[in-house]
Amino acid sequence: MQDFDVGARLKAIRQQNGMSQRQLAEASGVPHGQISMIETNKSSPSVASLRKILGGLSLGMSEFFEPDVVEDDKPFYTPSELRDLTSRLYSEANGFEGTITLKQVGNARLHGLQILHETYEPGADTGSDMLEHPASEGGIVIAGEIEVTVGGRKTVLKAGDSYLFNSREPHRFRNISDRQAIVVSACTPPYL
């Protein structure tokens, strides 16, 4: 995979939308300095931070990373056809090595439902900025274990365990174990 410049892509989209860094920061609810640091590639955003920023642009991660993908409405997908939402965010060039991989089934926006195959390497974390968005989400841990925080509640889920909650509550996913965790999840309406 060729290198993907997250900072340059964010700057180009911001400018296409006629927004200053301050305007995007205000629309996203993030500090102005964070936008600047990402655009100059001095900082690599977490999944939570990037999603928050893209929310200020009314853009999903799929459109951010794969703007030229032709949308289709087919019903079946092979593993190689899943839409990669994170490998360009968490690449060795950005100082990460396979931290989190989120792969989406088909066109989530078309169906109003996002289904993800999530892989969390040891130490992976969606970020200290908790995720919050207007949706409902649930998932099943397929392998390994993952610490899930929802509001003031926190637990470690193991293979076979599942979760379902209102995504308006602040939440976070972390792999605190020494082995890979795999989760299959769904979110409606789509968030990433």
UniProtKB/TrEMBL annotation:
Entries under InterPro entries matching the protein: Cro/C1-type_HTH (IPR001387), Cupin_2 (IPR013096), Lambda_DNA-bd_dom_sf (IPR010982), RmlC-like_jellyroll (IPR014710), RmlC_Cupin_sf (IPR011051), TransReg_Diox_bact_type (IPR050807)
PROSITE patterns the record matches: HTH_CROC1 (PS50943)
GO cellular component: cytosol
Domain HTH cro/C1-type: from-to ranges: 10-64
Keyword annotations from UniProtKB, A to Z: DNA-binding
GO MF: DNA binding; DNA-binding transcription factor activity
PANTHER family, alphabetized: HTH-TYPE TRANSCRIPTIONAL REGULATOR, HTH-TYPE TRANSCRIPTIONAL REGULATOR PUUR
Protein name: Transcription regulator, putative
